[in-house]
Amino acid sequence: MMATTHVGFLSFGSFLPLPSRISFSKRRPFAMAALSDDPIREWILSEGKATHITKICPVGGGCINLASRYDTDAGYFFVKTNRSVGPSMFEGEVLGLGAMYETRTIRVPRPFKVGALPTGGSYIIMEFIEFGSSRGNQSVLGKKLAEMHKAGKSSKGFGFDVDNTIGSTPQINKWTSDWIEFYAEHRLGYQLKLALDQYGDSTIYQRGQRLMKNLAPLFEGVNIEPCLLHGDLWSGNISSDKNSEPVILDPACYYGHNEAEFGMSWCAGFGGSFYNSYFEVMPKQPGFEKRRDLYMLYHYLNHYNLFGSGYRSSALSIIDDYLRMLKV
To answer: Could you tell me the pTM of the whole model?
Structure first.
């Protein structure tokens, strides 16, 4: 989601021993923090293995959350807070980061703690990774992303253990056995209804509904497996560490068709070397080009609902193009 930003992290994994494998089988794998006067400080000085905090530095964060770096004698911690939203939003992020981390493929910030703030709102504590001077090698990014998609599978179907957010928009992740049904109802349908409720946009709603009911021809001959997706992969959520290894962050994870990962490619800067390396691991399937705009549509609709009419024409144009292609 383009309007948010994130700041780099410096790893301190050597300072804080964690289980070699984190279990995410339960809905709340991370215990909620007790409401002390300062639960962030309390956790860092106990489970975080620090004895004192030397500095707290604001490091950006964007339009949704505030972000800070906590400097301690046990290393650096990255903390995001939101004074108006409860822990459920950050719980979704923790589960997503943890699921990606478990694949042992591409680097992501390791999540440590999520909890409620005593004055309202919530926080998340995670690993701080110091970013390098560039976004890293596109070829390596494509390969590692494909390896994550290949490793991260689900036996439950398409969806995720919790609903989460795409930007600040709720993202419904109800487990569904059929991908076309999931994408139509919980991705396109949700956004179209939001546009109708928010703007009274019956044109985009009605045309979008027609498209939703006629998606099947776009998937003929395609083998679709539930793959773990980052879910919001644009340039602001991609970086590299000091060793030039790619890092992805601020996810909106769910298990879906791997091609849906490229829905934000219109502002991700993926080049030929990225796709070539990706398809060496996850081979391109028939009709890939015909489905690219379909997966972009979800994000254009979300940007329309979040930021206004500047994105409406792009979303409507995609819908109309598919209606003509499918002759419906």
So the answer is: 0.87
